[in-house]
Design goal:
Layout (H helix, E strand, L loop, with lengths): L4 E2 L4 H7 L3 E2 L9 E2 L4 E7 L8 E8 L1 E3 L13 E3 L1 E3 L9 H6 L1 E6 L1 E6 L11 E6 L6 E10 L3 E10 L10 E3 L1 E2 L4 H6 L2 H5 L10 E8 L3
Parallel strand pairs: 2-5, 5-13, 8-13
Antiparallel strand pairs: 1-3, 1-10, 4-5, 6-7, 9-12, 10-11, 11-16, 12-13, 12-15, 13-14
Length: about 210
């Protein structure tokens, strides 16, 4: 699953790349995006921009409130930042999948590899995955508004294939440029057909950087 991605482009560059209106001018989004961090998304425009795309800043992860089994008290919400393709009809995701699909622009995503220290290993390290022929690309996303963190988004995940399968058994649903409009504006069946492993080339860069460091 993806718990870290890299985005090195500004809102203006993202807007130009996706031919979208920039509604995130001045947004302060980090280059490394972790769950519950702000990130850029490209979603359906509203008002005078209806029918087009808009770049917005949202928080990564749908808030999930849980109750303590020991005390019965409500716990701090945790961000659910991945939505599996085989769970899109569940209560958590189905309305957003039907009505609020978005593009998540990124330049790379990361997976943790290695043996954790808790199991006697040296620790998990970061492995970065990119598309060598696309310096900026889109992962399939869902979004909604929340009381806890305002507008939030999650990344849709599917089975891995090719080089990505060497790192993890799941990977983001990566959209070809010609499929991006269908993901945002198409019907449910059209979107479901896009929830498949990416068929293009994926480059893998293994590093010595500790996953948690």
């Amino acid at each position: 699953m993806c718990n870290l991605y890299r985005m090195t482009r500004s809102p203006a560059e993202v807007a130009e790349w996706f031919r979208a209106v920039n509604e995130a001018a001045g947004a302060n989004t980090p280059e490394l995006v972790y769950p519950q961090y702000p990130g850029l998304v490209v979603a359906r425009g509203a008002g005078e921009h209806a029918g087009g795309l808009a770049v917005r800043q949202m928080v990564w992860g749908f808030p999930l409130t849980q109750r303590s089994a020991r005390t019965g008290q409500m716990l701090k919400p945790r961000p659910v930042n991945n939505a599996r393709t085989d769970k899109l009809d569940s209560f958590m995701w189905r309305q957003s999948f039907a009505e609020r699909r978005c593009l998540i622009p990124l330049t790379a995503w990361a997976e943790a590899e290695g043996t954790p220290k808790s199991k006697g290993g040296p620790g998990m390290t970061r492995t970065w995955l990119t598309l060598p022929d696309r310096p900026l690309f889109a992962a399939a996303g869902l979004w909604r508004r929340s009381e806890e963190w305002g507008a939030v988004f999650t990344m849709v995940m599917t089975d891995s294939c090719g080089a990505a399968a060497e790192c993890h058994d799941r990977m983001p649903v990566l959209l070809r440029a010609e499929d991006e409009a269908a993901w945002v504006f198409g019907g449910k069946a059209e979107a479901e057909a896009l929830c498949v492993p990416y068929g293009g080339e994926v480059a893998v860069e293994r590093t010595g950087d500790l996953w948690g460091g």
